[in-house]
Amino acid sequence: MISYHFGNYGFIKQEKMKQLPITLYDMGIEHRCMESYSFDNTNRPAYDGYLLQYTFQGYGIFEADGNPILMKQGMGFFCKIPENSKYYLPNSHYPVEYQTKGWDFFYIHFDGSAADAFYEAVKEISGSVFSLEPTAPPIRLFLRLFETCERYGTLDLYEGSEFLYRFLSRLLRELEAPSLDETGLVHQARTYIREHFRTLESLREVADFCQVSHEHLTRRFKKETGQSPLQYLTKLRIEHALFLLLNTTDSIETIAISCGFQNGNYFAKVFRKFLQCSPEEYRRRNTGQSS
Fold this sequence. Notes:
Layout: E1 7-10, E2 23-32, E3 38-40, E4 49-58, E5 60-64, E6 67-71, E7 75-81, E8 85-88, H1 96-101, E9 103-111, H2 113-126, E10 129-131, H3 137-152, H4 159-176, H5 184-196, H6 204-210, H7 214-225, H8 229-247, H9 252-258, H10 264-275, H11 279-287
Antiparallel strand pairs: 1-2, 2-9, 3-8, 4-7, 4-9, 5-6, 5-8, 7-10
Helix pairs in contact: 2-4, 3-4, 5-6, 5-8, 9-10
């Protein structure tokens, strides 16, 4: 069980940038129980932007487009204000346990042009309601920032914006590929691929090293990392190619071979899928060099 304290913090914009891509307005950890606690997001004057709320303990209700959802431990909602949604404590339509338990949650209220992209991405993956383990990286990140506020009462310049970008990025990562405790098998496979990606001829080599079948390794790797061993390998190779393109004058063919690709033509084809441009275009755009 994680530990937390209650409290709310609001922030005055001090940054010199006129329009920050993302701005933290206020945040806090609250306990609500047997009281008048209900907010209708269709009409909240002077309270707009985005609200993300996550349940530590107890029960609450989030209702979107007339569909009420019981918010339990580990569940959160992400809404845009104004919109056709509301949130409130369980009423007489719910069991007494839900009404008397109370609702412990944290909330983050923010806005900015970058916030909309995160909101749409999260909504596409999970809808307005998501689930996360209390020990998931985004939750730990929030609690660390809350501790900073408890200690100092405020945040440094740009600290709120930096936190929001990291928090929302980690939230997306968790929703796309939850950070399960990686087994020894997958850790062993990832390490082997990192150390041998330049020379690997087949992923069966990795499976043989781990003493499992290729099919079993692929299943476990995909379940625990959200990507297949081949996708992981290809990403490593392309990222090493980016380093070589930016820091050497090696030919495309030489870079392809040194990254583990069969030839320059195949490398260029895979590269274009990742970057939507050729290796030559990428080098020229970022360094001014011609291959």
